[in-house]
Amino acid sequence: MNGVSTCGLSAQGVRVRLGGREVLQGVSLQVGAGWTALVGPNGAGKSTLLRALAALQPLAAGRVTLTVAGEAVQDVFAMPAARRAQHLAWLAQLGDVTGELTVRETVELGRIAQLGLLGTPGAADHAAVERAMALTECAPWQHRRLHELSGGERQRVLLARVLATEAPLLLLDEPTTHLDAPHQVALARLFRRLAHDAVRPCAVLSVLHDLPIALQADQLLVLDGGRLCAQGAPADPAVQAALVRVFDGAIRIETDARGVLRVALALDAAEAS
Amino acid sequence: MSLTVLPSSAVGGGSDASARRQLACWIAAAVVLGVAAGLSTGAAGFSPRAAWADLHGPDAALLLGQIRAPRTLGAALVGALLGLSGAIAQGVFRNPLADPYLLGSASGAGLGTVLVLAAAALGGGGIGVAALAWIERVGLVMAAFAGALAGVSLTLMLARGAVHTLRLLLAGVVVGVLLGAISDLITVASPDALRGKQAFMLGSTSFMDWDALVLMGAGLALLAALARRYARALDALTLGEDSAASLGLDLARVRLALVLMLSLGTALAIAQAGLVAFVGLVAPHLVRRTAPGLHAWLLLASTAMGAALLLWADVVSRALIAPEELPVGVVTAVLGGGYLVWLLKRRRVT
To answer: Which residue, A28, B64, B217, B333, is the most exposed by fewest CB within 10 angstroms?
Structure first.
């Protein structure tokens, strides 16, 4: 191998039914190395789609496959859970953590993905944990307990737990929830860095509520009513049009003089109408 | 015991490690003193002087070797089994209020006991006194054990395995109510069974013999070794079930293994001592409050804590109104209930 790992996830005609309602109505997509943001209004099925991709939500129809460099394409539901965990990490939207673990102990749980339940952590595992805590800036308070932290701090710890798995495919459900502005910006930078790492580029797929951050991604997936209505770069006019449409015209996307995309709530327009 | 702490926690989390070391020392001291107190408590209540006289008396071997030692060590083993089962239950159900009797083992064991007692009462006219005594002793132990496991099996069947935690808990409640109702029906038809059932419900450490100790000791050793292998799974479960699954855990299998472990531990304890209340709930609680940590530590410490608690409860139950004695389950219920009330009041204040 030349050091560049190509790891990808693809979904074909994924349908999910929850309590009689079809939450996903035939979603097909492809995610490879790079940062992809999944956006859409409340109830569009974003979290369900992410859970389906992570093999946590059984499908009514369709297929989700994982491609790892040098290996045959595998169905994520058919492959052994321990193998899947080595390639695919998932971050819960609202991590309801119980118990009294410290920050460090929590991040170390991520290594179970590589070690299994009975493995003994070695130097490489230690380094992965250190790196994950450094990337999310939670190392300084690594000995505090999780339930003593603020929502934003806890969110960073849980993200560190995901990063500690060193999986090349990261599925993150609302990783920016509870974060203050500096940490939101830091996270956007982190995703870009992980996705464009020269040695080991990751595939980062994140559900994002914050559109200004989502517009920084390499690729946008716009989901509405259980269907994917647009897919492409944020600069793509079709994607922008779809965004405005699925948010009922409540947002406005503009390109400023320097060519940077800006998104704003269309407050004045709402008043005018 | 503090060796179970991961090295990483020792880097800067020194206070955690030292809290665990301290608690380990306290528990060890409580167990040693509890055994000594148990051996010194007899018909005269808690009295080292009387115990010294007994030790040099003519009946020393009988009194200490065949009555007090098995009973004292038996209390420790029952407490240890309940502490371990409780810690597993609280971990697997991710709920600090989970207790080892949740899944139908208590009602199953109760029904088994009642069935044997009713059968003995029915056939009492035809069989000899010795046979009756044998049935009441060995038969009850086996019936309680089989009943406890049958209760849990029924719960697992009703919940179609251990795939959904909530379904499992609901099935446990349903089985508890159903089997309890059947027991009540039988006691209506055969009132003789009621007395025996009551003794069983209150819990007692007075029927221990060395055979029971060997059985429980072997069971505890097996369960402790197995639980240690699954400690990491319980750690992962603190993140939530989906997150644990995303780490590669086969949750349905892991949960089933853990449920079977806690059921076996509970069944072993119930069969020998009846329903000793609150130890399985309070022991893990006390450990987590004073010295929290990973499950490798929590499971071990809760086991030891359970042993210490029941040892002392047994001493109190025998000493308080000597030469009479209280059912040990009543003592643990009062102490455990008191602890929970105190905890609630404290929570409200802070």
So the answer is: A28
What token pair was written down for B91?
């971990």
In whole numbers, what is the pLDDT of chain A averaged over residues?
A: 89
Residues 6+ apart with CB under 8 A from B183: B107, B110, B111, B114, B197
Q: In the Cβ-directed half-sphere of B256, how many Cα atoms lie within 13 Å?
A: 12
Of B16, B96, B236, the CB nearest to A102: B16
Does the structure show a pLDDT above 60 at A1? Answer: no
pLDDT one-digit tens code per residue, B49-69: 777 777 777 777 777 888 889
**A129 inside 8 A of chain B by CB:** yes
Instruction: Give the ipTM.
Output: 0.90
Say which residues have a Cβ less than 8 Å from residue B101's Cβ, sequence separation at least 6. Answer: B266, B275, B280
Residue to mutate among A91, A97, A117, with most B CBs inside 10 A, is A117
Is the minimum CB–CB distance between B66 and chain A shorter than 8 Å? no
Coarse DSSP helix, strand, coil percentages of chain A, rounded to the nearest 5 percent: 35, 30, 40
The listed CATH number (3.30.2090.10, 1.10.3470.10, 2.40.50.100, 3.40.50.300) that belongs to domain B8-349 = 1.10.3470.10
What count of Cα atoms within 13 Å lies in the side-chain half-sphere of residue B211? 6
User: CB–CB of B240 and A97 under 8 A?
Assistant: yes
Give the model confidence (pLDDT) of B157-171 as tens digits. Answer: 998 877 788 888 899
Q: Which one of B11, B164, B165, B239 makes the best mutation probe of the A interface by having the most chain A beta carbons within 10 Å?
A: B239
- Using DSSP's 3-state secondary structure scheme, residue A236 falls into coil
**Nearest CA to A206 among A184, A239, A237, A225?**
A184
Residue in this structure with the two tokens 């069971």, named with its chain if needed:
B219
Q: Tell me which DSSP letter residue A145 carries.
A: B
Q: Which residue has the tokens 């308070």?
A: A141
Q: Do residues B235 and B247 make contact, with C-beta atoms less than 8 angstroms apart?
A: no
Answer yes or no: is pLDDT of A158 > 50: yes
* Contact check, Cβ <8 Å, B229/A117: yes
Q: What CA–CA distance (Å, rounded) separates B324 from B242? A: 53
What is the number of H-type helices and E-type strands within chain A?
10, 12
Question: Is A126 an interface residue toward B (CB < 8 Å)?
Answer: yes
pTM, two decimal places: 0.89
